[in-house]
Amino acid sequence: MKQFTFEIQGFFKLCGIILISYLFKSIYDIIYCAYFGPLSKIPGPKLFFLTRLFVSFKQLSGQRWKWIQNVIVPTYGTVARLGPNVVMISDKDAIKERRVLSPAFSIKYVASLEPLMVSCVKDLVCKVDECVRKKTFSDGAILNIVNLVQICALDIIGETNFGGKFNGIETLSHPLPGKVYKELRRRAMKSMFPLLKPFLNIDPYLMNLSNELIKNRRQAEKPRVDILQAILDTMKNGDNDQMTNFEIFDQILEFLIAGTDTVSFTTSMAITLLAKNPDKLKLLQQELDNSLGNCNDELPKHDQLKSLPYLNAVINETMRLWPVTLDAGIGKSPEKDTVINGYMIPARTNLVLNYYCLHYDPKYWGKNVKEFVPERWLGIDNSPKDVFYPFSAGSRNCIGQNFAMMEMRLIIASLLSQFDVKDILTQEFDILCYITPSFKDMKYDLFFSKRSLKSM
């Protein structure tokens, strides 16, 4: 009995020694990685070198992007360490070397989608006109520009990619934009705090919507040529399904996020910035009047819009000031050791590329870099090279930039050729960013009024 007791004590003693050794080894590895390893020479907040939790907690409020751009870059420079294995790059040449382009949707394919887009934009214009005619005030109406554009973008992505509109414009209400916003927060939390994954469940509304889209498409007599069909076609190899419904759901959600959240943010921000700068709004409306003629009730064609200098300048300047990657994104890990600005970066280090910093560098854009100045884009020689990445996320170029540009041009031109917009100065202007940027509370009100008849 004593021998058995001695053996048990010996076993627990051995387990204790192993556990203590493991803890000491883990602590040693953490400290070595933080302060003595290859990344230790890279500047950054020293405590952040120990764990990713510090930078993750910065994201809980959606304000991490402000901390990165206003504190980290000014304090630590163009190469900064944000965690044990996370390095942010804000250097122009280093970003250029690591940026990988993905093929965009062809211009011909996107052009074929214009009638579907226009039908959604027409619904939007008619709804705004109805609200203005009801005259909440004597000469117009206060409308949430974020909600207007999001619902229109949602209908566009539904009509062009998933078989039909989501029909939210009539009531100016649909649960999907809010659900997508919450899904972005869920994904951010899941990435920052992996231990919480079992408790961060997907909203059943989104899953049910996806299952309904898949079911209806499989039962359709004649398949449409769109993104959903392409996803379903790639899942089959002979008679064997290669993708589960959940994997298809994830693909559908990616397109809903890319097609509604990012484009609607840029579009609503462009209109908001024009409302805040009435002199710029007037210049754009003059260009639209001269190009479109005296046709108040007809929506413009994309061929009329795609080469308009000031319209494109407004969109570019909006994307310069408010790129969709405010806090540098998720990043990519190189497969081999590399040297960046004199620092040795080991393989599998998470490199995040800070495009925002380039967009605000006065060395390239001048002293008025923080101001909304579309004129800086008038003339091809005036725009700096290799410091403007409007559609980039992480290290890849947005595959839908032709689609996004056509959508933004159509919405902005269709609304502002027929309506004047004015800013309401008493409200808060704040931007949050979890994965993509958004207006706080998904809301920003503008005063809409009908424009008088245009003259040639």
UniProtKB/TrEMBL annotation:
Pfam family, one: p450
Regions that span the bilayer: 12-37
Keyword Phosphoprotein assigned: no
Cofactor(s) the record lists: heme
Molecular function, one GO term: heme binding
Key word Methyltransferase present: no
InterPro entries tied to this protein: Cyt_P450, Cyt_P450_CS, Cyt_P450_E_grp-I, Cyt_P450_sf, Cytochrome_P450_monoxygenase
Keywords assigned by UniProt, alphabetized: Heme, Iron, Membrane, Metal-binding, Monooxygenase, Oxidoreductase, Transmembrane, Transmembrane helix
Sites where the protein binds heme: C398
Family the entry assigns: Belongs to the cytochrome P450 family.
Name of the protein in its database record: Cytochrome P450
